[in-house]
Design brief:
Elements: E1 2-9, H1 15-18, H2 28-37, E2 43-48, E3 52-59, H3 65-76, H4 81-84, E4 89-92, H5 94-105, H6 116-130, H7 136-155, H8 165-176, E5 184-188, H9 192-202, E6 208-213, H10 216-225, E7 229-232, H11 236-239, E8 245-248, H12 259-268, E9 274-278, E10 295-299, H13 304-308, H14 311-368, H15 373-398, H16 402-414
Helix pairs in contact: 5-7, 5-14, 6-7, 7-14, 8-9, 14-15, 15-16
Amino acid sequence: MHLAAFGLNHHTAPVHLREQVVFHVERMHTALTEFLARRFAREAAILSTCNRTEIYCATEKGIEVVADAARWLADYHRVDPGILKPHLYTLGHEQAVRHAFRVAAGLDSMVIGEPQILGQMKEAARSAENAGAMGTYLHQLFQRSFAVAKEVRSQTAIGTQSVSMAAAAVRLAERIFPAVADTHVLLIGAGEMIELTATHFAARSPQSITVANRTVERAHGLARRVMGNAMRLSDLPTELHRYDIVVSCTAASLPILGKGLIERALKARKRRPMFMVDLAVPRDIEPEVARLDDVYLYTIDDLAETVREGMDARRGAVLQAEAIIETRVQGFMRWLDSRESTPLIKRLRSQAETARVVELERAVKALEQGRDPREIVEHLSQALTNKLMHNPTAALAQAAGNERAQVSALVKSLFKL
């Protein structure tokens, strides 16, 4: 069985392309079922986040199957394969294992050491399990990825100095406004990223924090934790102009803040500036908004440089993490090699068991006939020895030239001679 991974991420593709190949949660089961139906692989799992879309698979066909699978990815999302291809990476076997371990540990993230990716990988594994797409090989790959991530986090300082997207958003806001304490903040969504953002902005004590969400009950829950207010998304057209800072991160498949809506808000604000951060993929805010005067719009990619600050302080921890990962990769590759030998081991044991049963039946019949037990046991041991030694001795006798030296070395190794 061959392991492979392919996809694109924030290193290889801009956000406008990444958002086109996102697999939404409600469609994940269908996508996995369709992928397996195409017989690209025996097992598959899809990891789809704001920073990456990756497909992990176990296939008997080898890495060459990835080219067809990549075309399926483009067709599934109605993206021109020619546009997608330059941004895709393909990783085979050991490379795929190393990549999975690095992703789980947060080493391949935009924010080095960030913990959210581990939860996203666990969700990808659950989705694959529920779709019947998770088999022995991917199950082991993901479980060992989770264990490696835990080991890296417990034995290194990889996450202690990571700068989150939420913290980066606050830093950028402080470049626009003299004091965040004088602003009104609107957070759109109620997921983990917005919770982190709410915490960071609350620490700056703004004039107000409001959480807007499609489900207002969830908005109320988060708003209470930061001493803020809650409102429905449907209230945005009439309320948006009240806010200086807007941070959005929802799972919507289409933008929820269009250029027209922002233009009306700016008019009502009498051209006072708005600072906007779109942390969603696909994006929540239409890209055209960035061209409006008095709007400072940042996407998740725009925050990349800010979150890289402090990387020097984490470099030692990264080296430690890479060393741990490399050790665990080699351990996993040994497990894979042992799996490849399993069918042969079963055949070898089956052959030996057949010989044992045949000779045992002969011995039992001889005992029933009243023959000398010592003679029977002697014959049984000789017969078993002869049968088990026949093939290796015949191979040695028939080998010639260089082959004889190879067979001799193999026999010496197998029988510890």
